[in-house]
Amino acid sequence: MGAEWIVGSELREAYCVSLVRGRSAAGVVEALGGAGVVELRSLHRLVRAAEQVPFRTGKTYRATGMAFVAVAERDGWAVVVEPNGFLFTQAEVYRPLSAGTRVVTVYFSEHSAPLFLLVENGVVQLRMDPSVPESREGADPDAHAEALAALGFRDGETSDGQHRERAFALAERLTGVGLSQEFLTRTTFHCAAVPDPHHDTYADDDARQRLAEYAATNEPAPEQETETDWWDGLVVTDDRLRATGPAGAELARLDLPLLEALSRANDATLHDVAQWARERVFADAGLLGKSGIGAALDHLRRGEPVPAGLRRKVSRRILPLPDAPVLDADGRLDLASRQHLAMDLVLRPPDPDPLTAACDAIAATEGTPALAALRHAFPGLAG
User: Fold this and answer.
1) Nearest to 103 by CA among 88, 115, 87, 90
2) Is 123 left (phi over 0), alpha (psi -120 to 50) or beta?
3) pLDDT tens, 104-142?
């Protein structure tokens, strides 16, 4: 498909990439209310710069009410990159920017459902979760059915995990603009902190000062960026642990002794842990006990893909995905986003390796509180 680069890039965990036809980079930044523009080159620098705007502290953010955008031009389109952002999933942003033109957005986050958007003159023509192509909606959701089929989007089929690549391939079909690791690495982007319409107050001066200070640093821009190691910064050499991929790496960062304890557990225990985590995810999403959920969990318990008919039945139980993820007062994702995360477990067949399957299920839970509950539920996992 030509978009395999995204899986190994520094954007892989969370990104929003948008294309706006006929707009200049400066024009997009201005339309978004950006000021204090700095120029940065290389995806590595963009990812690091994005961390300056919301004031990152560990895994949490102190909100400034500002969002980071990096904009460049390619083949008559403005390319907008938001590492760990979601500005262009918001109607307050894409409606005015699509006036008289077309906006295409590809959004992904490990903590909410993916999204593909096609907007023309303020009207959403196509909106879908790329991992669930039958979820598509909009003013004309089937206008590009032929392109969807040609790229491998199949209604009612179990996701094969390549929906991110397909989403970028679809964006290229609709815009004629192909993105690549080389383009993102070698292009100079216009970068700015811009107001997030979901916030009422803005610490714009602070955010822009931090961005300017970062841009002034002498951190080198790599001439060629290679696939990033999920385990970068972790002292983990065990091949079995590293084979668990991004979910295992995330668990290692939160609780390495627990991951090591899981690696010593027998397969039966790992199956039980995976099922415990799945049930917790569905309970947190308010879905446990609803029609079809128990049957879906039974298939997952047996290591089987959930049949297409049952997946469709379950998908009818979940709330529509919001324009953008929203945090509840207690800091959790909104209910609809939690339900779509639960749905992702239904769409993906369990990994045949019991340890990886357990890590995948744990990664869908709410993090540290779930890990404490997991240790309590399985006291034999001494770490």
Assistant:
1) 88
2) beta
3) 999 998 777 889 999 999 999 999 999 888 888 999 999
Q: Can you tell me the distance from the alpha carbon of 219 to that of 53, in angstroms, rounded to the nearest whole number?
A: 18
With a CB cutoff of 8 Å and minimum separation 6, the contacts of 136 are 126, 127, 128, 142
Tokens (6 digits) for 116: 């593909």
Burial class (CB in 10 A: 0-12, 13-18, 19+), 233: exposed
The encoded tokens of residue 324 equal: 């953008």
Main-chain phi, psi angles of 326, to 5 degrees: -125, 140
Return the exposure string of 261-296: e unless at least 16 CB atoms fall within 10 Å of the residue's CB, then b: bbbebeeebbbbbbbbbbbbbbebbebbeeebbeeb
Integer Cα distance of 47 and 11 in angstroms: 7
Q: How many residues does the chain have?
A: 383
DSSP state of 330: T
Q: Which two tokens stand for residue 7?
A: 């899986």
Map out the domains of the chain as residue ranges: 5-215, 239-377
Least confident span in 60-74, 272-286, 347-361: 60-74
| Alpha carbons 286 and 67: distance in angstroms, whole number | 31
Name residues whose C-beta falls within 8 Å of residue 44's C-beta, 6 or more positions apart in sequence.
Answer: 10, 185, 221, 222, 225
